[in-house]
Amino acid sequence: MTLGAAAAGLVGALGASSALATTVSPVMVDLQTAGRGVVANISVTNTGAGPLPVEITVTALDPTPSGFQPGNGSADDLLVAPPTALIPAGQTQTFRVQWIGDPDLATSKHYYVSVNQLPVKLPEGQSAVQIVYNFQVLVSVSSPNKKPELTIKSVDAAKGEGDKPAIAVQVANGGEAHGYISQHRLKISETNAAGAEIFSKTISGAEFQQMVGYGLVATGQTRTVTVPVEGAPKGGTFSAALLDERAQ
């Protein structure tokens, strides 16, 4: 990244990212290895007064307990076109993202597709400080035949933003595809020493997404998310369950 870099949010982002004169949408993309889902589009809009030169790069990722980090794997299975563009003021450029790798991928793969603003060439003899921005779109790829298996591993009292009460929920994915906590309802319960329930709250997928983000959990990953919960803790024992978002 160059001077003044900005990255579009990871699991906490909600659909589009913008900084100054650039908007990128979406910031999370799910692809499948076969069928119509092998292709998706990323739109970059130049809301500035001048032309916007951008370059696309792709980086393979490795999962960590808190999200993802750049890895050493190949990014050749993910094709993005065009690789560069000069977007006129007020215009939108669409970039095509396509999986060209194994149609029967054993486990999900993840990538950053980085939209990198390039410095503008200045007239000879003229100098200026240029602030350029980089946006990272998280692209996750899975086989349509593979499914996630999210399970709760642990639940503990924690502190959220501003030291407000929160619950730290550790979620593991034992399946062969990535999954999203926000595609479930999360029920958090607290019981006292006698086993009686003293607190209970069920958070819908939409509420979880607003508070925490999408909650993406990669294949084989164990991830801890901190969920703000008013009224807890009360010194008891916590438990949690992931419920079908469609069930009432």
Automatic annotation (TrEMBL):
UniProt keyword Signal present: yes
| InterPro entries per record | Ig-like_fold, PapD-like_sf, Pili_assmbl_chaperone_N
Query: Which keywords has UniProt assigned to this entry?
Result: Signal
This protein's superkingdom?
Answer: Bacteria
Enumerate the Gene3D superfamilies for this protein.
Answer: Immunoglobulins
Q: Which residues form the signal peptide?
A: 1-21
- Domain Pili assembly chaperone N-terminal per the UniProt entry, residue ranges: 40-135
Q: Which SUPFAM superfamilies match?
A: PapD-like (SSF49354)
One of its Pfam families is PapD_N
Protein name in the entry: Fimbria/pilus periplasmic chaperone
Q: Which organism is it from?
A: Sphingobium tyrosinilyticum
**Organism placement in taxonomy:** Bacteria, Pseudomonadati, Pseudomonadota, Alphaproteobacteria, Sphingomonadales
